[in-house]
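Batch manifest, entry 17 of 40.
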Amino acid sequence: MGTPYDAPGAETRDKSPPKRNWTLILLGGFAALVALVLVAATALPAFGDYSARAKMSEAQLAMFSYREGIVDYYATHRKLPKSASDAGIEDWVSTSPSDKVARITWVPALSELHARVKAVPGAEGTTIKLRAMPQGDVLTWTCYSDDEAARKLLPSTCRGKP
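Output type: structure tokens
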């Protein structure tokens, strides 16, 4: 016993979907793929920039303990230190707590802290500078870099001019 479809001369139906539906599915898939490529092309360069900016922020933050030593010295003596050891801070050479800073030094002639950046793509070997400016009982600080590439990666609070 069979079904009416099995009978000789009976109509048979094609169970496959119409071809136009496949065309719509393929077109939708292609549109999704194009959108994904566009999003990736936009997001990946921005991610690299954000990553480098975060690393530069880490380098800037590494300078803060030095800055505090100079602020404490100024609060006690009402003058800037003539050396890092006067302020109780020693120059970091390769023992810095940050893997983004190769060296931090106090430059008394310029009243500046200098941090040599390492391991930051686009800014390796550049210097971030914090300039101390006495104003009465307090020190104000200006953060900057002479290197244009490094300046673009610095936090907005560290893009000043001396």
